[in-house]
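Repro:
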Amino acid sequence: MHALYKGLNKDGSDETTLMDGVPPLHSVDGAGAGALHSVLYSREKIDIPSILKEYITLMRPKQYVKNIFVFAPLFFALPLGNPAPLLNALVAFIVFSMTASAVYILNDYCDVENDRLHPKKKFRPLASGKVSGTGALLLMAGLLLISVASCLAFLNVQVLALILAYLAINVVYTLKLKHISLIDIFIISSGFVIRLFVGSCASGMELSYSIIVMTFLLSLFLAFAKRRDDVLILMETGQKMRKNIGGYNLEFINSAMSMISSIILVSYIMYTISPDIIAKHHTDKLYLTSLFVMLGILRYQQITFIYKNSGVPTEILMKDKFIQLSIVFWAISFLTIKYAGQWFA
């Protein structure tokens, strides 16, 4: 092995031995220079796809299924031959999704310590440390700027006002109101009602009072089921996943869910047989679709009470085939009865 320097130390030893670990820079094949360069200037490779994946996960795109309520006014009105309302509703869906993602990021940022104790939430990007707090806040700010700009460019002031109201309510919820039992789930349910109004203002379709009430009750039902999962975790592990979990117990949640589910079903039946709806849809047979509403509610109660798996409603809706088929058959039967009544009237 060639040496860069050769001489004698004071004790007479060969100084060349000190250089054995360094490849010669003047080697014929140039490998020595390359090796030394890699030692001096080596940097850890940045896995950009993995980083982007974590930031996308931080936005919780799976939760966007909730924003389908933006299309609800359009579904019940269903203006055929006019694509403008549908396009506006689609833009509203995207805008609301970005705003909701910003809210989720703020919530994760404020709850990062509690999430690290949760058996499932500890794997979230912020709680696991895969995304920094600064990066999360920058993403949140960017999403809010894009959503506001999109409202001003493509939608209207009414939608922007609703978006800002949703944002303000959720900021207060994240900082304070989420720690007050009952108030927390009522605020969650109000978010679904805001989604309805966003869809209505964006598409120009009117909302019926019955749809507003049923949406609020349905979201309240799902929120109680989610709190039930937190109560079960407290009973099994002794850990409080929420500061306000002391305001809930299984008996209270079970009775509340049973009461709300009954009101939802009765409200829907009353909606389908009301004179205004019969006149609007030109049929008095829409009550038949209540069969699938009942099936969907009972299935969700089965998942909650028997299988004890109601912590993430969106995952249930996306994975449970029974509920998916109930929704699909409800929609098909609703549209079929509605237009059959018009065609054969």
